[in-house]
């Protein structure tokens, strides 16, 4: 009598493979989510760097037009092309520039959102105390620095990657 050869996997072998795949997934998924978050942060910083560059080009064009540096009230005006969709938004009432990492579905609380604050100041503008909003920093002979009111406009940008109250 001939012996039949069973081809295939036993139940034990299948269970072992499933356990190994579960362990592999438990290790790989957290690493992958960190990689995704890191990529999103890098993309945000690249976008913000491009936005800052566009604001500087905009202000240079304003100098050519009227001899005074000005910045737009909405930073997206400085861009050649506005961001698509609702992933990036600028709220002119709160001056908040937002990036919704998972897209915007109408609910600010259900999305992972990064926020920057952008303020533009017109040339010669002053705060509520009468102090100039914009300063020009000069270096003294002794190496120290001195801030003087600037005749040009400026803007401040605060948020991830940008120092609080840093003036451009």
Task: Outline the secondary-structure elements.
Blueprint: H1 11-66, E1 88-91, E2 96-100, E3 113-121, E4 135-139, E5 145-149, E6 154-158
Antiparallel strand pairs: 1-2, 2-3, 3-6, 4-5
Mean pLDDT: 81
How many β-strand stretches?
Answer: 6
Please count the helical segments. Answer: 1
| Structural category | alpha+beta
Tell me the Rg in angstroms.
Answer: 27 Å
Order of helices and strands: HEEEEEE
Can you summarize the main beta sheet? Answer: 4 strands, antiparallel
Query: Considering DSSP H and I runs of 4 or more, what fraction of the residues is helical?
Result: 25-40%
Q: Give the overall shape.
A: elongated
End-to-end distance: 91 Å
Low-confidence stretches: none
**Strand order, largest beta sheet:** 1-2-3-6
Strand content: 15-25%
Describe this structure in words.
- The protein has 168 residues and is α+β, with helices and mostly antiparallel strands.
- It has a domain at 45-158.
- A hairpin with a 5-residue loop joins strand 4 and strand 5.
- It is 33% helix and 20% strand.
- It is found in: Membrane.
- The chain crosses the membrane at residues 9-29.
- Residues 119-168 are annotated as: Disordered.
Characterize this entry briefly.
This protein has one helix at 11-66, and strands at residues 88-91, 96-100, 113-121, 135-139, 145-149, 154-158. It is an alpha+beta fold.
List keywords for this structure.
single chain; 168 residues; alpha+beta; four-stranded antiparallel beta sheet; two-stranded antiparallel ribbon
């Amino acid at each position: 009598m001939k012996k039949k050869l069973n081809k295939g996997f036993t139940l034990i072998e299948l269970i072992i493979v499933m356990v190994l795949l579960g362990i592999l997934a438990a290790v790989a998924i957290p690493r992958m989510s960190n990689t995704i978050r890191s990529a999103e942060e890098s993309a945000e910083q690249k976008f913000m760097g491009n936005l800052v560059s566009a604001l500087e080009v905009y202000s240079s064009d304003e100098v050519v037009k009227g001899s005074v540096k000005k910045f737009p009230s909405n930073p997206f005006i400085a861009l050649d092309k506005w961001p698509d969709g609702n992933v990036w938004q600028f709220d002119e009432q709160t001056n908040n520039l937002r990036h919704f990492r998972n897209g915007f579905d109408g609910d600010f609380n259900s999305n992972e959102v990064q926020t920057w604050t952008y303020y533009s100041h017109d040339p010669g503008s002053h705060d509520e105390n009468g102090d100039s909003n914009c300063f020009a920093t000069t270096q003294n002979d002794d190496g120290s620095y001195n801030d003087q009111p600037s005749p040009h406009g400026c803007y401040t940008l605060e948020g991830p990657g940008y120092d609080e109250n840093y003036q451009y």
